Q: What sequence folds into this?
């Protein structure tokens, strides 16, 4: 065996072992999530949320929704938030220096006036230009804050400074919440006396194709377009399997920025959202966990498998690419900011398992996949390739990808069964076969671009144009 | 033949590499799971179709029980021909057969429990009678004796809501169970049987009573006629902090003024949550000493509890706290300053005068705080 064969065998074996390592991780996550899902559903069947909605002892919550150039739908979105079923609630809309007429529309629709308001800068943030309240008592829960543009993290920090309640729920203003979403999200904070629950997240689902009326989701459909449909499958896998398993292990590192609840006191002690990263949602959770570990305070980060929040997924490759690029940069920035935790036993499970998982499975996986692709092409070019071996490896990874997605669909059907129409499930199953050859390579490519952009110190969010739910009203 | 096939399979498998073998296994699993999903969804649709029919049968039976009057003759139901039972309620044979189906039993029990929750008087008693007549109580006891925490909790919930007091002793054995949900359902059941007297489980509660359970218990108690129950003084000195927290909420909800001194003692508790709750409770039991009692503990408190004290002082201040409050206007924390101004403003013109005369009143942040409070008072 010459040195080229030796190198070839060595690299091929490395790819094989990495694949087995990755696959084993996914198998563990898939199986481990079953118990947690079952336990949650059984426990939840005993809960009467009406009691919590009307209880005077229920925790006081501030919903914080940053808005930037959301003029087209802002009135409807705010109306939807104001109709949430919970008594001890305030809704804070932070207008992050919008260039459109969002503020004027809000002033007119909700009879707002500029109130005298002392903003206690517990977390440093951009200047607040004005705080608006309604003259109409029907909208007494509403506070609108107008501030200089500073990005989503900065807007959330202003919201936290304005908030007068103990818990904050941060959401994207254009998300559609289920009626009982807040009740379900806040309950974990009341259920644990031994640990301090510092954050809770819920399942975010794709609303493309669903029927929406008056800011409410009235009927669930599978998206008609392939791209959102592939993302639907991806979200099912990520939320129902991944996050449930991590929640069970007590190692959850990410709560979606689209919808999450936090203990405000801990958020402030940690300094609020970091506006220097594009992955502010993950970074905050990691920083809060790190703080609790360093302070040696027993804590938990919880996850609710109920579909609580519906969002519009990118329907074009261009927008989706920007999103994936940003997610990659956010992940790397967070991992870099907290690298002290990498295999550091001082940080318990997070240091020894969660952080390494994110490093090897989320950060490194696309890079290794991409390098593998380059390696394969080089060997084709030099006529050194062992086709049968590569085909076998590729088929193994592909079939596993499909199997994992099908398992995700099975869990969805066995639990929430949102897509009841016969053809919906057939189409979802078909998507499981297509997704690994379209969305996955696309994600890998944009993850690589994200790495390159980060090296070039690109810090922008990338514009996220949405089609709006009005098209969804027409059905599929 | 079989051995030939086996040999061929063996030689085929041995010729495969690890990735090929894994691919075959994964592909096989994909086929199995896809088939399972399709069959399962079909079953679900069939069950949903059945549910409509089951709903009708269960609702009919429950309605008959609710509107049943004792002097009515027990007549065979005209809709259902075969009558199995001649007990209080006529139980159609079709329903009796369906009771063997666990899904139907679950549906019927759920409907009975839901109906019972909204009923009182004779109709409520009838539902309990029906539950027993259908031997659902015996099923519940079987569930209680099972090893599943879920079935145990479900049984406790059913027995409690159905008011089956004959099982009280058995249920009481679960009020301090190590499994949270079982404990909670047992405690709720005892409360349903005994009303305020059921709170005796707090005497021995060694596990935490979570905030969620406290909310549930208070909701349960709110449905009972008000009565002067005893025991709060004991719970206020419990070694279980969550029992103290719950006892404080009871004092607040039922305005137990006679327990003022015991609540005051909680202001010196080691747990800051207990102290905070005690501060809130004193707001509901005000007397001429409340403000000075709170001011005494103020310097040793954490910022959160200090802010709570300022909130409570808004309601219980007598006017003699002005000098203490004016000193707080120089506090480092803007939050303390804000709440102090609000408390001083609640004392009327005299309090506001103190704020306005402060040397920093025209400078940030005091000027902005004053502007907000003045606007709120308008």
A:
């Amino acid at each position: 065996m010459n040195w080229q064969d030796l190198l070839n065998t060595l690299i091929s074996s490395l790819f094989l072992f990495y694949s087995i390592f990755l696959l084993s991780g996914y198998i563990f996550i898939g199986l481990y999530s079953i118990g947690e899902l079952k336990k949650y559903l059984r426990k939840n069947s005993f809960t009467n949320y009406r009691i919590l909605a009307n209880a005077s002892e229920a925790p006081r919550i501030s919903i914080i929704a940053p808005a930037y150039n959301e003029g087209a739908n802002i009135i409807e979105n705010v109306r939807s938030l104001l109709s949430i079923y919970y008594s001890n609630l305030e809704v804070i809309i932070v207008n992050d220096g919008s260039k459109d007429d969002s503020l004027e529309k809000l002033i007119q629709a909700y009879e707002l006036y500029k109130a005298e308001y002392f903003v206690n800068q517990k977390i440093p943030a951009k200047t607040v230009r004005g705080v608006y309240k309604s003259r109409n008592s029907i909208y007494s829960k509403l506070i609108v804050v107008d501030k200089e543009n500073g990005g989503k993290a900065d807007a959330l920090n202003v919201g936290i400074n304005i908030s007068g309640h103990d818990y904050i729920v941060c959401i994207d203003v254009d998300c559609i919440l289920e009626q009982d979403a807040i009740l379900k999200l806040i309950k974990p904070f009341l259920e644990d006396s031994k640990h301090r629950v510092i954050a809770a997240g819920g399942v975010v689902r794709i609303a493309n194709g669903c029927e929406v009326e008056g800011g409410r989701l009235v009927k669930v459909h599978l998206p008609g377009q392939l791209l959102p449909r592939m993302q639907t499958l991806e979200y099912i896998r990520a939320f129902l399997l991944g996050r449930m398993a991590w929640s069970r292990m007590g190692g959850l590192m990410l709560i979606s920025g689209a919808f999450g609840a936090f203990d405000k006191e801990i958020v402030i002690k940690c300094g609020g959202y970091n506006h220097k990263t594009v992955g502010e949602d993950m970074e905050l959770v990691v920083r809060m966990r790190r703080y609790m570990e360093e302070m040696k305070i027993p804590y938990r980060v919880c996850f609710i498998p109920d579909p609580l929040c519906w969002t519009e997924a990118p329907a074009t490759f261009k927008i989706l690419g920007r999103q994936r690029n940003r997610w990659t940069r956010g992940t790397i920035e967070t991992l870099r900011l907290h690298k002290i935790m990498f295999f550091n036993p001082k940080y318990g499970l997070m240091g020894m398992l969660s952080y390494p998982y994110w490093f090897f499975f989320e950060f490194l996986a696309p890079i290794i996949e991409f390098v593998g692709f380059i390696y394969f092409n080089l060997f084709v070019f030099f006529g050194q390739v062992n086709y049968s071996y590569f085909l076998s490896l590729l088929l193994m990874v592909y079939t596993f990808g499909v199997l994992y997605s099908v398992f995700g669909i099975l869990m969805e059907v066995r639990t929430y069964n949102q897509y009841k129409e016969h053809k919906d499930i057939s189409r979802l199953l078909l998507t499981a076969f297509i997704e690994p050859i379209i969305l996955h390579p696309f994600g890998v490519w944009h993850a690589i671009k994200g790495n390159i952009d980060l090296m070039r110190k690109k810090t922008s969010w990338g514009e996220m144009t949405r089609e709006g739910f009005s098209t969804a009203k027409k059905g599929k | 033949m079989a051995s030939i096939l086996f040999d061929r399979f063996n030689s085929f498998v041995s010729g495969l590499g690890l990735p090929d073998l894994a691919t075959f296994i994964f592909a096989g699993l994909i086929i199995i799971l896809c088939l399972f999903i399709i069959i399962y969804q079909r079953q679900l649709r069939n069950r949903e179709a059945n549910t409509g029919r089951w709903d009708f049968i269960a609702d009919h039976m429950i309605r008959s029980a609710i509107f049943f009057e004792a002097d009515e003759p027990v007549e065979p139901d005209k809709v259902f021909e075969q009558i199995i039972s001649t007990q209080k309620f006529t139980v159609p044979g079709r329903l009796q057969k369906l009771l063997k189906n666990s899904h139907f039993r679950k549906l019927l029990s759920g409907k009975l429990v839901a109906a019972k929750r909204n009923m009182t008087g004779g109709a409520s008693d009838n539902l309990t009678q029906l539950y027993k007549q259908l031997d659902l109580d015996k099923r519940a006891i079987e569930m209680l004796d099972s090893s599943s925490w879920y079935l145990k909790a479900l049984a406790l919930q059913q027995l409690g809501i159905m008011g089956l007091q004959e099982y009280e002793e058995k249920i009481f054995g679960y009020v301090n169970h190590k499994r949270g949900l079982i404990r909670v359902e047992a405690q709720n059941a005892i409360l349903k049987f005994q009303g305020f007297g059921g709170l005796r489980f707090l005497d021995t509660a060694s596990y935490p009573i979570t905030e969620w359970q406290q909310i549930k218990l208070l909701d349960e108690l709110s449905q009972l006629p008000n009565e002067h129950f005893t025991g709060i003084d004991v719970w206020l000195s419990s070694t279980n902090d969550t029992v103290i927290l719950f006892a404080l909420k009871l004092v607040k909800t039922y305005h137990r003024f006679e327990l003022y001194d015991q609540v005051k003692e909680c202001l010196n508790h080691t747990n800051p949550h207990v102290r905070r709750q005690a501060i809130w409770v004193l707001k509901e039991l005000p007397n001429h000493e409340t403000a000075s009692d709170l001011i005494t503990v103020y310097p040793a408190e954490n910022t959160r509890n200090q802010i709570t004290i300022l909130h409570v002082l808004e309601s219980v201040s007598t006017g003699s706290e002005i000098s203490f409050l004016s000193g707080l206007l120089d506090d480092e924390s803007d939050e303390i300053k804000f709440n102090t101004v609000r408390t001083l403003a609640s004392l009327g013109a005299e309090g506001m005068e103190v704020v306005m005369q402060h040397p920093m009143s025209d400078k940030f942040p005091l000027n902005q705080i004053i502007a907000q409070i003045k606007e709120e008072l308008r």
Notes: Chain A touches chain B through 45 residues (CB under 8 Å). The CA atoms of residues 46 and 318 of chain A lie 45 Å apart.
